[in-house]
């Protein structure tokens, strides 16, 4: 294999300049840089760079595992992914997107030696991926939580978020509030933690309020939103407000309600929880949202993982951040009884 | 370093079973697999797997370069990214997300030896990243095109798409059609190829129609959409229809027009080009869209790149696919003159 000296000689520059380019430590003129990069390729010096990673047992590659990103990734998930990718780059790591849907792919990840660690999204209460990572001793951090709070995680503080959403609706006079949540492929009782935690916080808030809970579960699509509108009118007609924990259904819920003669917010107020303000602004009327702290949580998760890998001790392994209320035009007083 | 035999002995399985797990060639019982994965970690056998990649000069890692995915990635871009990641996995490659914003990061990519090749998105007519990839001899494929059609690319066929959008509007009786496009950070005359090609196809279609063109350029945001609505009313009041090549501005355009007393489609028809049908359905009224072939193009691009890497000859290096018309409720006849 070629040495750095040979690269420098071929590119007609100093060894220091080659080092600047490889490590990105100092700016180098574009023509010089191109000459060095070409020499690296021609001499196959890149293998040395990979070999160095090998010698340190580190590849500086992290995997981001998400079960079904291809089918309709939502706006919030994308913010998590992108902020994690940026955060990784800032610390000299690369983030590989791993659309993992079966056990064989998980084996390739765990046995292949490519990645130093993994970030998991869409974490379920009992998550077999977590069990396998533990068994295989691959370091990881969760975006979301299993039932085991001792694992390293970052998550949305759904307790605080849901209670704030209820308080916001109560301040307008609402007392009968329904929850619209999202159907997933997970087995009943083992839904993603976010869905179970939001529902549990909602039931608690309703108990405090002394109002009966009404939970409607639909697909995260426009059709799902329309189905929710029909189910609300049929099964929870006394509800004057909805907490929506299903961003993909938001447009369908508004349009479906209107089609049934129920205007937003005239007849029905909506707070959309764990979404983006951009998505809220797309709807007519603009939705009042509780915006997910996706960008900070994505960075916190990747930093928590890298801290583990690098043996940094003082990083907090558990972080909960609530969503932020961004008022739109979808919340008003409940219709007066006439 | 450990051998595969040592891994097999420690995990108390046959060498063949270890191979099944590493290469994912046969299903292995979960407990057995966990034992093998743990043995691989304990013996640091993973280094051998990486070493094998090294010996073949291949890492089987591809980079996806996009300049600014963190700031408001749009729905179509995400479909490209996810389908490319899936396509890569199916052929045994991993896709690293590279949010590249400066030359230093590009150097790290080119000199670091991590990736076998690169996919580029948001390709500009003159794209310095392409020049650097060529100079550094890193194989690549473009999602989009520079002015040099000899490079390997896949792209939306904007010519066909825009002409079909114009034909659709003409079939309702529209003759005065404006184009709303997207402002980018690129230097004037060096915008992303998609924007320049769409505008050029639009101008050609207007020339054929004998109508004066009206092009309005705004940010890809709700605020940008509102600005477009005002600019249309002020500068192109005779336009009865809009081709929108700016999915981030779609909700703002509809809301902004309504705020000016111009209903969609009563006063203004809209065809949104190069977007997703899900995004069209979120708007009220649902937008008529020309849906981008993002999923097939993402896969074609990654396959074209892998074909290059593996020396496959018979793959077509250039593929153009037009968008598909998905009618919504945003196109109607032009208002009758009274």
From TrEMBL, chains A, B:
Please give one Gene Ontology molecular function term for this protein: transcription cis-regulatory region binding
Family annotation (Pfam families): LacI (PF00356), Peripla_BP_3 (PF13377)
Task: State the CDD domains in the record.
Answer: HTH_LacI (cd01392)
Which SUPFAM superfamilies does the annotation name? lambda repressor-like DNA-binding domains (SSF47413), Periplasmic binding protein-like I (SSF53822)
Alphabetically ordered keywords of this record: DNA-binding, Repressor, Transcription, Transcription regulation
Q: Where's the HTH lacI-type domain?
A: 2-56
Q: What name has this protein been given in UniProt? A: DNA-binding transcriptional regulator, LacI/PurR family
Q: What is the lineage of its organism?
A: Bacteria, Bacillati, Actinomycetota, Actinomycetes, Streptosporangiales
